[in-house]
Design brief:
binds manganese (II) ion; DNA-binding; alpha+beta; homodimer; 6 strands; three-stranded antiparallel beta sheet; three-stranded mixed beta sheet; globular; binds zinc ion; 24% strand; 30% helix; Arc Repressor Mutant, subunit A
Chain lengths: 149, 149
DNA sequence: CTAATGCTTGCAATGGAAGTGCAATTATTG
DNA sequence: CAATAATTGCACTTCCATTGCAAGCATTAG
């Protein structure tokens, strides 16, 4: 895939350094997808990315996201819609080790899912003998935009 | 599908009454699937049911579960594995109205998912402007059987 | 700089779960 | 028993996720 790199070179430079720190190669696809995710304020599906980059192959997008996931650049969100969504990890996020402790909100009206990164998941009690390693919490309802503030 | 009704008639009688109270017809399939769910202590997938009733058609099993769901006889569980699981609702459960407020535990070792029906989901704070209608909380880790008590 | 090596990409194909249309079967009602 | 309504089985379909393989591109050793 040939792309015209008409995007901000300064930003791109930073992303390149970031990729290097994560020990992954810098490619046009990866830069573009990273930028796409960074500009979105909501979690996206693979189809969303597909629609944004129609010239690229679905598999490449899929594998790029998988690579990002392995390197803790993005995290998966299962919001119960049946379609996996992805969002950039926060700086200093360590979802490789213990999963993402913030909660996610899914709007039943506009169908968007957002990370509530500063809403941490409270400590959850489990019965004797059970060991909790990881918690997934999704709140569903109406988002701020849809509720009319 | 022809089945030999070699199962406890007294129990069956109770289930029949239960179905009547839910205003659904009593059929062999429904009785068998209900009994199957009642005997399981874990949430099951459609495939689990399929394997247990190989003579039955998948679609019938699928639609039976859907009917149970609509009538609040079972509730769906999305434990993040990507495959929907089902479990019987507790007596007095009203997951039709407000979703199931108990939490679910998914064992990363044996891959089983169980309802922790008496572990209710705590009140979750959401930001200004957001309206919470419903919460899905899944704890992942090691279950009591796998942790060695 | 060039060649060898290994990672990345595109294409084609597969698998699995979920869901639907329609006709045949079975249950309920009168 | 006949008419009516709900349930079941079969054949398809759709959609997302995932993989094998060969071609393309980037990195590194020489
Ligand atoms: Mn998130
Ligand atoms: Mn449950
Ligand atoms: Zn919304
Ligand atoms: Zn276990």
């Amino acid at each position: 895939m040939k792309v015209v790199m008409d995007i901000n070179y300064i930003n791109m430079n930073e992303i390149e350094k970031f990729f290097a720190s994560k020990k992954i190669r810098v490619t046009a696809m990866r830069l573009l997808i990273y930028k796409f995710l960074a500009e979105k304020e909501v979690a996206v599906t693979l189809s969303d990315i597909e629609n944004a980059f129609e010239k690229a192959d679905r598999t490449t997008l899929y594998r790029t996201i998988k690579t990002f996931e392995e390197k803790a650049i993005v995290h998966q969100i299962d919001d119960g819609t049946g379609i996996t969504k992805y969002a950039l990890c926060e700086k200093g996020c360590n979802c490789e080790i213990e999963t993402d402790l913030h909660l996610h909100f899914h709007c039943n009206n506009c169908n968007k899912t957002i990370c509530l990164t500063d809403h941490k998941i409270p400590q959850i009690k489990v019965p004797e003998g059970f060991i909790s390693e990881n918690v997934n919490l999704v709140v569903k309802g109406i988002c701020d935009k849809c509720s009319g503030q």
